[in-house]
Design brief:
- The structure is a single chain.
- By secondary structure, this protein is an alpha/beta fold.
- The protein has two domains: 154 residues, Alpha/beta knot; 59 residues, no CATH class.
- It is built from nine helices and ten strands.
- The strands form three sheets. The protein has a five-stranded parallel beta sheet with strand order 2-1-6-5-8, sandwiched between helices.
- The protein is elongated and about 70 Å long.
- The chain binds adenine.
- The site of adenine has 11 residues, from strand 5.
């Protein structure tokens, strides 16, 4: 898998990509992450990459030429335009989710375009962008942190990227429920005891307790997800009883 990131601020991304799971993934699965400074594709001596918006108004807009040139340079190198996805992090996009992370973990080439200020020239979006994605209903100063957040969420789901994919697969949201609480030694700390069932060694009871905790936590903390969970359960029950009746 290969990820290219176009940014005017590569330093924001460099250190986080060189740490922890992202670093591990780069060596374990041969994930290549290429940071490309948009300024390297500017053509004037001041390395200008943005300009004022047509029609007036505050803020600056990224010019199309350096971004077109940078994207063409990437795809000249890889030649795989057809199975690549070009992502533009933006508050106008569809909301990034675990489902989207899972989908992108199976794509061999991802390109992120990090905008700043008012955004980027619409012609770049119209020509190149396959996915405009938001990380939430708030505005950050640029696309670097959203891109980093999405890269982290995606990369950890690639088989082999982290020690224990099974652990990633039991994460919150992977099946629409939040995760359960976890405890480690000591058994009792400052008068707070670990739930008995976790010490019992009884695998089925532990699994039942964990599922019950996940359902209860979801009901209390995220009633919206809990409703979706109930509806899915209802659907599955109905499918089962329909299948039985056919027999
Ligand atoms: N850029 C600025 N704000 C953003 C957001 N909420 N999501 C994605 N990209 C952004």
């Amino acid at each position: 898998m290969r990820i290219d990131v176009l940014t005017a601020f590569p330093k924001i991304l460099q250190d986080p990509l060189d740490e922890s799971i992202l670093k591990q993934a780069r060596s374990r699965i041969g994930l290549e992450i290429h940071l490309r400074d948009i300024r390297d594709y500017a053509t004037d001596k001041h390395r200008t990459i943005d300009d004022t918006p047509y029609g007036g108004g505050p803020g600056m807009v990224f010019k199309p030429e350096p971004l077109f040139d940078a994207l063409e340079a990437i795809f000249r190198q890889t030649g795989d335009r057809t199975d690549a996805r070009v992502i533009f992090p933006s508050p106008q996009g569809r909301l990034f989710s675990q489902e989207i992370a899972q989908e992108f973990a199976e794509i061999p080439h991802l390109v992120f375009i990090c905008g700043h200020y008012k955004g980027i020239d619409q012609r770049v979006i119209d020509t190149w962008v396959s996915d405009e994605l938001s990380i939430g209903d708030y505005v950050l100063s640029g696309g670097e942190i959203p891109a980093l957040l999405m890269i982290d969420g995606i990369v950890r789901l690639i088989p082999g990227a982290i020690n224990d994919l099974a652990s990633a697969q039991t994460d919150s949201f992977q099946d629409g429920l939040l995760d359960c609480p976890y405890y480690t030694r000591p058994e009792s700390y400052r008068g707070m005891a670990v739930p008995e069932v976790l010490l019992s060694g009884h695998h089925q009871k532990i699994a039942e307790w964990r599922l019950a905790q996940r359902i209860e936590h979801t009901r209390i903390k995220r009633p919206d997800l809990y409703q979706q969970f109930l509806e899915k359960e209802k659907e599955q029950l109905k499918k089962k009883s329909d299948a039985k009746q056919k027999k």
